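Justification of computing resources. Each target in the renewal requires a structure prediction run like the one illustrated here; the chain below, 177 residues long, is used simply to show the kind of job we budget for.
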Amino acid sequence: MNAFPATAYIVAFVFAVAVLATVTGALIAVLSTRIIRSVCGLAICCCGLAGLYYFLHSPFLTLMEILIYVGAICVTIIFAVMLAEPDEAPRRENRRAALGWGGGALLASGGAFWGISQLGLNHPWTTPAARVNQGTVHDIGISLLTTYSLAFELVSLVILVAILGALVIARYGRTKP
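Resulting structure tokens:
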């Protein structure tokens, strides 16, 4: 049986959508002046990252990215913002200082991107090992309860601390009592 004729184009399109969602979400998260929009950008970026993890044949990381970051962290941040006091008036910034910091950040991130790309392109990578399992729900459940049980519990503690922080902000606000 022959494969669908446009399979390669569909896979390339879905990969491009995942990359575009990651980059667009990151830009929204960084460039937005409103915290709610930044959190929505973070959620979009995390969904794009989940798509990229899926292309790396890691369904476990894909599910954990969506479950933990989009489903728990972003929602907790939104609850904390909704329960907190209103924003203070924005302060006026010096345009020269902002351009200087922005240029420095752009230069540093460009250097980091160049270094990481050179490492990725010029490193003699080994071939990946054969798959141990198929990534089914049963395999993920076994992995969560055996191999990754400590990491799973640590993630649950991080979520618990985020929820407690949201409750403290909701109760006392941003000012000290």
